[in-house]
Amino acid sequence: MATPNPIRVTVWNEGLHELKNEAVQKIYPDGIHNAIAAFLQAAGFATRTATLRQPEHGLTQEVLDTTDVLIWWGHLAHGEVEDAIVDRVQQRVLAGMGLVVLHSGHHSKIFKRLMGTSGDLRWREADEKERIWVIEPAHPIAEGLPEYFELQPEEMYGERFDIPAPETLVLVSWFEGGEVFRSGCCYQRGSGKVFYFRPGHETYPTYYQPLVQQVIINGVKWAYTRTPVAPRVVAVKEFMK
Ligand code: ZN
Question: Which of 18, 44, 87, 228 registers the highest number of CB atoms within 10 A of its CB?
Fold first, then answer.
């Protein structure tokens, strides 16, 4: 029995592959968002979900104001995410909400906005083995992980991944085809923390893998800011004495 945890997590998924692709439906009959929400709930987080086709993509101001950490999975429809919602999520991150961006979320508007880069990378779908190396074992996101773990099959993502140099790089992937990739990247943006985690191609059962779940659980805990300080402008008229 997990101990109760006050961290409020919203799992956002565009939720379109699950409607269009039978192979994905088989793996994630209730959607990727519910598969992720289930293990987070079991870990004791207060968890809910939101999807693209809901009004305001399920990310109303009220939802975001009561979200400590937002998880983002998207792929087919990054362009359908309204800019006003991207602005809203960005403001919440700057004010202290954590953001965990998964897999193809590297091309999401919100990730590109927060990184200031294209998020471009190399990729290949060839049912390859991925070996994920934990290169910062003392980092909170590495808690409980072995030196490395493997996923097979997974999609290959390779460098160069167009991101700013991570403030901390926790995980590096190697693929059977020879490529390497920065798989677990940490950033601070304003008062909010951002964690990018690579695995999770929709046609593979990656989010049922216990060590993948462990990384996401650790990522949520790390991205949570207990006492966020929203940015503000302060006009200071007098010298301090
Ligand atoms: Zn993919």
Answer: 18
Whether the Cβ atoms of residue 137 and residue 145 lie closer than 8 Å to each other: yes
Q: What is the mean pLDDT of residues 129-135?
A: 98
Per residue in 24-56, pLDDT (tens digit) is: 999 999 999 999 999 999 999 999 999 999 999
Dist. CA 113 → ligand 1 center (Å): 20
- Residue predicted with more confidence, 2 or 110: 110
Sign of the torsion angle spanned by Cα atoms 67, 72, 73, 79:
positive
Pick from 123, 135, 146, 139: which is nearest to 199 by CA?
123
How many angstroms separate the CA atoms of 228 and 121, rounded? Answer: 32
Per the DSSP assignment, residues forming a β-bridge with 151 are 130
Question: How many other C-beta atoms can be found within 10 angstroms of the C-beta atom of residue 209?
Answer: 17
Is the pLDDT assigned to residue 147 strictly greater than 70? yes
Give residues whose Cβ lies within 5 Å of ion ligand 1. Answer: 104, 155, 201
Q: Report how far ligand 1's centroid is from the alpha carbon of 208 (Å).
A: 16
> Is CATH 3.40.50.410 what the domain over 8-119+184-223 is classified as, yes or no?
no
Q: State in Å: Cα 3 to ligand 1 middle.
A: 33
Dihedral sign from CA coordinates of 176, 194, 85, 52: positive
Predicted pLDDT of residue 51: 98
163: which residues sit within 8 A by CB, 6+ positions away?
106, 115, 117, 119, 182, 185, 196
